[in-house]
Amino acid sequence: MFAAPLISLALAGIAAASPAVPPQPKARNPQCNFWANVRDRFINEIFLGVCAQDVHSLVRISFHDAIGFSLHSDKGGGADGSMIKFQDVELTYPANEGIDFIVSFLQPFADDVGISYGDAIMFGTAVGMSLCPGAPRLPGFVGRPDATRPAPDKTVPEPQDSLATIFARMADAGFTPTELVHLLASHSMASQAGIDPSPDLLGAPFDSTPFDFDSQVFLEVMLKATSFPAGGSGANVGEAMSPLPGEFRVLSDSRFARDNRTACAWQANALSQSSMASNFATTFKKMSLLGQTQSKLLDCSEVIGTPPPAKNKQAFFPAGTNHGLIEQACATQAFPTTLSTVAGRATPIPVVQLQNCPTCPTFK
Ligand code: HEM
């Protein structure tokens, strides 16, 4: 397993000099008072008030934990925290490379606060996303019991898997190809460290605005690719060429944008930030309840804060790109010519690090 190269804010011991966090909602249900405190501890001790690497890592583990589930066979308990409880088993699976990073500080945090690992992952993701510009407000269900068994290997899709394999795995867990595209809005706040571990590419982002939950990743993955990012090792397993310097394209994302089963949903997300966000929220709720019975959980969504508004209501063509580079695969809707283009030449997109985060002013 590769060493996690991106330093967690919490692990880095960055002082709790967090930027001002907007006032958080009070609990009306007295049972949710405890969870309002857990939320504050997440914000102050894990995220330090910003939507950055630790939030991204939480969102990723939320998928890897929950998707260990099958409607048709015994493939794990779903959103149950087994990724943490049975980390000795699950973190050895190739698809979970790099997840050890978030597990290493989420486990002691959950133990100290006194919450189950399943709740730490899903409630923590909802709290983290509430700090991200453009994100939807996610539900805060709590009370997941401890996992009783690890998920087996091969429940988490890998970027080099065929689309048939990925769609079959997602269908086995109850998700259509369109729902998968909705979940992939998460890749709008994402970077890589494991497909190409070259030092220059640690934190190489999937789009030009990796600190925002916006439509850019959908537009930018549709652009004609030109090269592998400089400083990297080139054509790695699971990697596709990208259209912008510094940008990293995941092979499966490239295929989803061009396959007739997913291309229209992909393009629709490129064209509407608001429906992208609401579709993500709906599908994320379903994912966060895999293996759980909603009526047995406590709904403390009222303590989840409202995320800041999206900075860009509409996707744009980054400098150096234009409408002519769109590789459109949706047969039923032409890609509009109305989106704006940033003037000038393409400049390298920086890696995901605090000093490159426009919404993390305290840490500049
Ligand atoms: C076909 C399905 C998917 C594939 C093949 C896939 C693949 C990947 C890969 C290869 C990475 C980079 C990991 C690394 O090198 O560090 C990544 C990152 C990420 N993925 Fe996915 N992913 C999928 C679905 C999802 C879903 C459904 C979610 C959440 C709902 C998600 C959330 C994320 C996030 C937030 C990151 C960035 C993590 C970070 O920056 O630390 N992914 N994904």
UniProtKB/TrEMBL annotation:
The chain's coiled-coil residues are: none
Q: Where is this site: Transition state stabilizer?
A: R60
The signal peptide annotation in the UniProt record is 1-17
The alphabetized UniProt keywords are: Calcium, Disulfide bond, Glycoprotein, Heme, Iron, Metal-binding, Oxidoreductase, Peroxidase, Signal
Which residues take part in binding Ca(2+) 1? D65, G78, D80, S82
| Positions annotated to bind heme b | H187
Per the Swiss-Prot or TrEMBL record, the active site comprises: H64 (proton acceptor)
Q: Which residues pair up as cystines? A: C32-C300, C51-C132, C264-C330
Q: Any note on cofactor binding? A: Binds 1 heme b (iron(II)-protoporphyrin IX) group per subunit.
Does the entry feature the keyword Repeat, yes or no?
A: no
Annotated residues for binding of Ca(2+) 2: S188, D207, T209, D214
Q: What is its EC number?
A: 1.11.1.-
Single biological process term from Gene Ontology:
hydrogen peroxide catabolic process
Can you name one GO molecular function term for this protein?
Answer: heme binding
Cofactor(s) recorded in Swiss-Prot or TrEMBL = heme b; Ca(2+)
Tell me where in this chain the Plant heme peroxidase family profile domain is found: 57-334
The keyword Signal appears for this protein: yes
Its family remark reads: Belongs to the peroxidase family. Ligninase subfamily.
> How is this protein named in the record?
Peroxidase
Q: Which organism is it from?
A: Exidia glandulosa HHB12029
